[in-house]
Amino acid sequence: MKRILNIIIAIVVILYIGKVAVNTISGKDKTIPLKPGNLSESIDTYGYIVVDEMVINSPINGEVNMLVKNGTRVPKGKEIAEVVSPNFDKSKLNELNSVDEKIQSIKDDKDTNPYAKDIESINAQIDELNKEYQQAKDKSVLNSLRKKIDDLTSKKEQIIKNGPSSIRNLDDLYSQKKQLESIISNGLYKIYSPEAGVVSDYFDGYEKMFNVNKLFNITSNDINAIQKEPTEIKGEVKQSEPILKLIDNYDWYVLSVLDKSQSQKLKEGNNIKVEIDNDDSQLLDGHIMKIYSISDNLFGVVIKMDDAYNDFYKKRKVKVNITVNNYEGFIVPNTAIVKVDGKYGVYKLNNGIPAFEEVDVKAQNSESAVVESTDGNLKMYDEILVYGKDYLKK
């Protein structure tokens, strides 16, 4: 009898060792140390860039030349482009440059410099008075302006008479300069920035639909109308056609259209992360300004961007990934999570023996989950079974 009992015990031990060996070989008893991690819940969709921009149209028919690079921020009053008429005599520019050099040479002469400054100042005053004279209608005002102009002219003549001979040349050069500038202005129009901003000559024709004044009223028809991306304006242009725009680089927005279930994951005022997918993907900070209904099941989400985007001045429709939530905790493989008596948990090894530990599953994707211990018993580097579900079947 004792011999039979020993045989039975030996068989049980062999079977158990065999089972453990099979489990080990198959990886069923594989463990991993608990480590902190995070999972993000995000929405992949398209975004439409909306900027605060000022469109500048061509004053004449001609060829446009950009004088600054696209994407450059310029101050107010900066010369940024020129439009050249087809009939423009470019030789007049060379003549003007030659006259300017001669004027500068006289002004640089120490002996003539004081006289040159006086004449330059008087000429500027006369020009301003002439402008006022052309606009004035009252007879007494006209007479007063005429007297001031005559007095300044007499003063200038006295300076020229008493000064060196080069001063007489200077006044002639100023007259030539004025005539050449008048001729050139009829064929060459210089464009100056009316405000500070980022210069762009990229247009798509949707500037009126997608602007900050209509930001909360963009419709599904507006969205569906977008069929192309902005392109550069180059070469010949017609009068009143757009040639460039100034963009406020501090205020720009991304408008995304989401279905109802997606929009419910967002809340006005929340800070979010937006990744714009292009050749150089950028993860940017922003916050949700407005969520509004576009149709029965579509909602517009207006995101005010806090960070700069390199290509914002030349893009309209971009692929975006909007981070809705970011969950932190212990990250474990999905295979480690089991359900016992209606509670979710993992198996932790205590002195080599698996023990069930309840967890709160905060987020999950196809491979992993972020969990949190419900009672605080799980600690960093605790060993847990990778295949908890398989352990249940033992």
How would you describe this structure in keywords?
four-stranded antiparallel beta sheet, six-stranded antiparallel β-barrel, alpha+beta, 32% helix, elongated, 394 residues, 8 helices, single chain, conserved putative lor/sdh protein from methanococcus maripaludis s2 fold, Elongation Factor Tu (Ef-tu), domain 3, 38% strand
Strand order of the largest sheet: 2-11-14-13-12-15
| Distinct helical segment count | 8
Number of strands: 20
CATH level-3 fold name of the largest domain: Elongation Factor Tu (Ef-tu), domain 3
- Rg: 39 Å
* Apparent shape: elongated
Give the second-level CATH assignment, the architecture of the largest domain: Beta Barrel
Task: State the secondary-structure class.
Answer: alpha+beta
- CATH-assigned homologous superfamily of the largest domain: Efflux pump adaptor protein, beta barrel domain
Mean pLDDT: 86
Largest sheet: 6 strands, antiparallel, barrel
Helix content: 25-40%
Estimate nothing, just give the exact number of structural domains.
3
Please explain how this structure is put together.
- The chain has 394 residues and is of the alpha+beta class.
- It has three domains: 26-39 and 328-392, conserved putative lor/sdh protein from methanococcus maripaludis s2 fold (Beta Barrel), CATH 2.40.420; 45-52 and 205-226 and 248-325, Efflux pump adaptor protein, beta barrel domain (Elongation Factor Tu (Ef-tu), domain 3), CATH 2.40.30.170; 89-186, no CATH class.
- Helix content is 32%, strand content 38%.
- Strands 2-11-14-13-12-15 form a six-stranded antiparallel β-barrel. Strands 6-5-3-10 form a four-stranded antiparallel beta sheet, with no helix packed on it.
- The longest helix is centred in the N-terminal third of the chain and has 25 residues, at 2-26.
- The radius of gyration is 39 Å and the shape is elongated.
- The protein starts with a helix and ends with a helix.
- 19% of the residues are buried.
- The model is unreliable at 15-27 (pLDDT under 50).
- Residues 252-326 form the RND related beta-barrel domain.
